[in-house]
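@here heads up, posting the sequence + SMILES for the zinc ion run so it's all in one place. Ping me if the SMILES looks off, I pulled it from an old spreadsheet.
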Amino acid sequence: MLGREPPRPRLNKYGRWVVAVQSRTLYELLKKPVDIDRIRPFVEHCERCISMFLRGFFDSEACVYKDGTITVYNTDYKLLTYVIYLLEKISIETTQKEPRINKRAGGPFREPKTGKLYKSRRDVYYIRIWRGFNKRFYEKVGFNH
Ligand SMILES: [Zn+2]
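bot reply: prediction finished. Complex structure tokens:
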């Protein structure tokens, strides 16, 4: 885990152990632009490390719609491709095998979380968890909140 302090899990109000700060920290540590080749050995160290990385990523970037659909929007195509690969490693499938274009650069883009409208400076891509794998996603990855 990049030589940081070992995760200190705590019980949340649902009686589930969480490592909130650490996975967020891990993700913060990997601030853009993410050098995938550099982080690979740490992220893929074991299944738990993969889960922690994904939790940090989805916690920061994902949008959960009312129908339960879990979608992530990002401008980093390579990073999204890597996330699909990691999800597959822990047997969670996305609706597409590669990131899909959501908005081309220059167009208006509504930030899904805040609803704020802005002009995207770069192409925005998305990936979506295949609904049949939501349960597994919550078991293996989950969110901190
Ligand atoms: Zn590990």
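MO: The radius of gyration is 15 Å.
MO: One more: The domain at 10-140 is CATH 3.10.28.10 (Endonuclease I-creI).
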